[in-house]
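My current task is to audit a protein record that another person submitted. Please read both lines and tell me whether the tokens look consistent with the sequence. Do not assume that whoever made the record got everything right. I have pasted the whole thing underneath without changing anything:

===
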Amino acid sequence: MKLKEMKFPFIIFILAIGIAIGFLIDKVFSGDNLRESITKFNDVLTYTEKYYVEQVDTHKLVEAAINGMLSKLDPHSVYIPAKQMEGVEESFRGDFEGIGIEFQVVNDTLTVVSPITGGPSEQLGIMSGDRIIKIDGKQVIGISNEEVRKKLRGKTGTKVTVSILRVGLKGELNYEITRDKIPIYSVDTKLMLDDKTGYVSVSRFADKTYDELVDALNELNNQGMKQCILDLRGNPGGYLNQAFKIADLFVPGKNKIVYTEGRRSEFNEEYFASEPSPYEKIPLVILVNKGSASASEIVSGAVQDWDRGLIVGETTFGKGLVQRQFTLPDNSAVRLTISEYFTPSGRLIQRDYKEKNDKAEYYSDAGLENETEGENLYHSVEKDSTRPIYKTSKGRTVYGGGGITPDYIVKSLDLTEYTVKLLRNNVFYLFALSFIDSNGREIISKYGKSLNKFRNEFSFSENEIDKFIEFASQKDVKLVENDFQKDKDFILARLKAQVARNYWKNEGWYSVLISVDNQVEKALTLFEEARDLANLK
């Protein structure tokens, strides 16, 4: 009996000790620190709201606290307020609802830069250069960009009336436009640069990018493409699944394309090539620069690691972190880094951010400023760095921890301050608009619908060049003769491209600018080497 009487309190004692130890372990290793921190934050917020000398907006305080918290993590973990979420989702979803125009407010006048292909404005005959002076009967002189979006966007099927002035026609043109879903394209353009070279520019990795690229490649294939330039310059990335599917178009067999590793095992994933593609067997050159990041680096990293093609341009941004978006109750969201991604050889592409003072320094410090131009097949440019060394499938040396360094380093044009000011002050577009107002009928009469004829035959006269210089001066960009002469080919090509875009949209724009693109020019000389590297017959 005594044994039983002693046993029961002993069991209670052991249970108490166990509970106490469990409580301490939980406090150290699980959520108690989190709960204490939440309580602490709640107390501070409550005291502030109750006792602060002025009335406070607690919503703003909470958002500031969230931003402050995320700033202690990595540069790519971010908070997105609810009012910004719609625009963010549009860019990745690949469509929005509205009338389908690109626009600028020029001298307080809402001006159509271009109707979007397939949109309701294009179908009704609204043209580049049209001035919208009324929306639903109300004057819109002096309208802001944000007001334009509010007035012209809306649910599919709803209607809006616009009144337009068009150069060469008297009076107003009135259009009743039924809003619709407007595509946001990821493939900016697709061109045949010669009888065998296809060129495709991809601006982002959104929901439909893979489908768009397949369509573009198939169209070029039908036009006789035997080799391809894939332009990922300025492409900031996007969806991981789109990157791996696009890499699969070019990487043969069942080769690994990318893998991810995170603190939690459920975020560890591997992606392998799986679908056969006719584009696995064509010589490939990928163009990159400092603005190529994330998904762009997945594609170029896989191609480089498997020696499938050549990477040309400038060292990429160096973003090797994967984010997952978590939607909050008020429709705002937080994007948290959940894992790191690695190229097939094992390279982490993410460059250092922990030694930077803030995000501004991190973003401004992208790329190797002093990298030497020229052949870099064995990556001697990086040899003096402390970055880890890896090998491609053919044993070439490549480096991790700092973006993708090209196999051929070709720096973009180093524009003078004069040309930079022309760009900054929007002088090219504004002059082209006035030039088209005066010469549009003559251009249509002479070139009709033939972009090739325009590209090969059109040039600005010396008198028109003088007018451009004077026009720029009136826009506070005074002529610097040496700068103008140095950049003259680019300036005139940019002006010509601006005119071409008015009639042939992106195809006109890119086909003209490529004529002064030194990185494309170099890529065109490297296809035999790309063929040999990939062991293509």
In short: Residues 1-30 have pLDDT under 50 and may be disordered. Residues 95-183 form a domain with the Pdz3 Domain fold (CATH 2.30.42.10).
